[in-house]
Queue: 3 jobs
Job 1
Amino acid sequence: MQVRRAAVLGGGPGGLYAARLLKLAQPSCEVVVHEQGDPDTTFGFGVGLAAGTQRKLEAADPDTLRDLVVAGCRHDMTMSVGGRMTRVRNDRLIGIARTELLAVLQRHAEKAGVRIEYGTRRGTGEFDADVVIAADGVSSATRAAGDFGETIDVGRGLYLWCGADFALPDALFAPVETGHGVFVTHAYPYSGGRSTFLIETDEETWRRAGFDRTTDATPPDASDATSLRYLEEVFAGELRGHPLIGNRTRWTRFRTVRCARWSDGRTVLLGDAAHTAHFSVGSGTKLAMEDAIALVEALDQEPDVGSAYARYEATRRPAVERLQELARRSRLWWESFPSRLHLPVEQLMVAYMTRAGNVPLDRFAEGNPDVVTAAAEQYAKAPPPAGDLVDWVLDQPLRHGETEFPHRVLPAVPDGLTVTEFADVVTDPWNKTGDDVVARARQARRDGADGFRFAGPADRLAVLTRLDLAERVRTEVGGLIIVDGPASARADLAAGLISGRCDLVSFTEEEA
């Protein structure tokens, strides 16, 4: 369709990128971005662009990507636990200052002929436009006022964003135990010789440290200085003597936004306005810019607005929902992260990389054989040979008490072992249903059970959730832990074994 006029609400990455791509695709279209903020004021620190996102940006708009890469900072990833460190190579990951990202996108949008207006809040009904693209963020006023069928799920953990005035050599994941509980940072360098420090904790630790009170006392336009000074001491080693920098920094809980519909009349949602996915999978900027690519393609190729919006949503929704599910699992893993600090750092890194089921164990091993070899030796007390890593993990023997198992695949429970089976349908192993399973497992142990078997549906998501539930019981209750799953899930089950989520697995028949 030929778009005469397009109004874009929001001057963030998604809105600016959509505006540029639309103007490039349809030069005669009048495209105006309406950003309520000041052009010289932005919030946040650095953002990450992974290799997959860079490939998509290169195909859509190589000129913009080239400037983003020049402005960015490449880095690998390091995890530090208990004085030990391990490193993962990821040489196409870049961090870029949010200010630099927006400057590049603003410059390229204006170069294409987009007009950008700042400083005024606008509503969708104010425009004489064929298309209104609402890219106004997680707290979207457009979404709240329209008929989009929104739902918002709020996470249990708390986090805050801050920064530091030096560049870390790598992205860093580091937990620190304090007298109040565990705090963990996800930190990474970005351009300008600075680093982002994202810091998470659980609600009990947050309250014990008094941060519920400091959060209530911090105005919306200020930073929680008390928390920042406390966290400077907690992460003094990681900060290397530098202070933490705030920018409207305050504790909050992650909000997962979902919408039943992404469009309402001539208005369409894009990026965080339509959907969010937890920051631990680095997804906000990625999703918004990939949305922009698909939306502009649909507008250019379909005959009318309704068809274009339907095509855009049909194209993007499967990928978004897949990433939201990965992000949900990642969020639950991070919210329960302190329970894993007993693991050696290499095993913990394998657990981290396989936490959401997106990175197969053998693929991770191909790129980082030193990390996986160390984790395998911690798992089996022997180095893995060259060959099929999954087979090797499953073939390792296990001694549990007085019982010897020749390998980790259990055909039947041996005589003399009492095993309690759980077949509960659980979507979140750390919710009340998960709490109930843990309570029943504790009682079963008191009654003499040697271990537990976790059974259920054969689909992959159910198997991944069983592994998480099994890990929780293994950590909090103990005993021999067995997880059932189909042979098609053998790689996931092997990752669960080497990551300390279970002790044995049992293959079941596939569902028809």
Job 2
Amino acid sequence: MAVVTLFSAARLDHAQNQFALLAEHPVRVVGVWLDEGLPPAIDGVTVIHQPPGAAGLRLARGRNAGAAAAIDGGADVLVFLDADCLPGPGLLQRYAEAAAEHLESVLCGPVTYLPDGVIPSGHADFEANTRPHPARPNLPAGETRAATADEYRLFWSLSFACTAELWRRVGGFDEVYEGYGAEDTDYASKLRAADVELRWVGGAHAYHQYHPTTSPPWQHLDDILRNGALYRRRWGSWPMQGWLEAFADAGAIELRGDQWQRTASVSVSVSVSDSASADQPGG
């Protein structure tokens, strides 16, 4: 088993918290540095570099490169965690058990969004702070179930797992996506179109560390429009509808025919909120 983590200078402290917890387990860790410049050297972590593209950070390419490095190192199960996410005490075990029973499934565990200043340590501390996001299933530990067709839209790339063989067969994320948004929605749509099962895994808890952000994510507006248009051309619908509607309500974009486009420059109020809202695919 190997854990693949994307991280950058902005999330280095979060990633270090994650790496410290993973060091307690006999698991290989591949960290993918997404920024310009030389990546930091981190004890116990194989760090590879995928610098930004013309349109921003290359999350899709980073996950693909991390998976390739993990498989080349002999990993039979891949666990993907974003830098923000702490692995709960049972995450690796639950993913390993589910992967052994469901070789042809992509596996997703619950995600708790932690409040500001809360960094759990130890089983009791994690348990006391476990409040999974209500939008997704939260099964009892040890239980799994297949996602319904409509639940594929709830796939979040911040915590998921699969066997290396399934990853090779299905292929990775589409690297045409750069910057924020839509690459994970595209991946979920690819899974559904190929009849690859998405399966919810009880007890595989990840804990998203707090960071301030904006709601909606104004800093990603152009990325959302660009990547959303790429997704629509492929799949026939717009992803991230919640964000698009929020931008439209603020007067920043409008629907022209079947395309969302920027309006004339408008003054908008940007409010900082907690990370439990702005990191959700689709808003």
Job 3
Amino acid sequence: MAIDLIRLELGYGLLSLINQPQAGSHRLTDQIKGLRRQIAGEVGFVMPAVRIQDNLQLPPNAYIIRVKEIEAGRGDIRPNMLLVMDPRGEAMSLPGEQTVEPTFGLPAIWIEPGYREEALFKGYTVVDPSTVITTHLTELIKDNMPELLSFTETQKLLDELDKEHQKLIADVVPAQITVGGLQRVLQNLLAERVSVRDLATILEGVSEAASQTRSITQITEHVRTRLARQICDANINEMGVIPLVTLSPEWEQAFAESLVGDGDDRQLTMAPSRLQQFITSVRQTFERHAMMGETPVLLTSPLIRPFVRSIVERFRPATVVMSQNEIHPKARIKTLGQI
């Protein structure tokens, strides 16, 4: 009856990736081990083990990634070839089989290993089949992090926090927040790809907020302000600045006026036509910046941030929404535009 949290099912043509990978490419199992280490370092929790299974119902070169037994993604790969993509997005001049890269849906080509040097020389990105699967797995795990952080995992994170923080834990859990409540705060952070590795700071934030409110949303928002340095650091571009798009005063007011209720019962009651206008203008603004090679952060006031984010994540899940309270005083910012 036990459920596999993460399962990778391979068609029989791909079993060679586990047993005898080609020269110069990595063994899939080793790459997945490396991935678990990498995610623990980046995100702060150890992802569950990945169960690898052969599935004879699949086409020979196909694979499926399941999260809690439900399909989260699938792809089709050529085990003895290499996948080539052009980071600039231009047409590629190499003999091979045209395809679509499974993780981000980019155009790509499967080439024979003999063309590797030529592809690298032309500035293309060249990836071996195992890496295609591992990359897909990484993104799906990051998308499903909140689901994978169970009650048991949360308890484990607390148990593993070093000795000097045990007093802090004793003060906060369960007197100010239950393990389940803390789990929901951490899930909220992970849902926006905020690392929970600095658990001590998160607990301090929870402790401060819990004396004022029982609302998990408001506690999460307060914790985010405590993690301002980390959130800013995660969103700086190669120039060392955070590119921002701000929300106009009209939209700020429209959102603030559409909030009804208190605490966790607070809801957004904006007319669907008005929401559609908002979605269209966010889309247009961000697509314009994307064409110029920028991926800006959307900046809002603290009160409405969670509500703006809940709308933006439906059509642009990768867009980061920050409130003014999360901009660290030492962070360098650059405003690119307004919605």
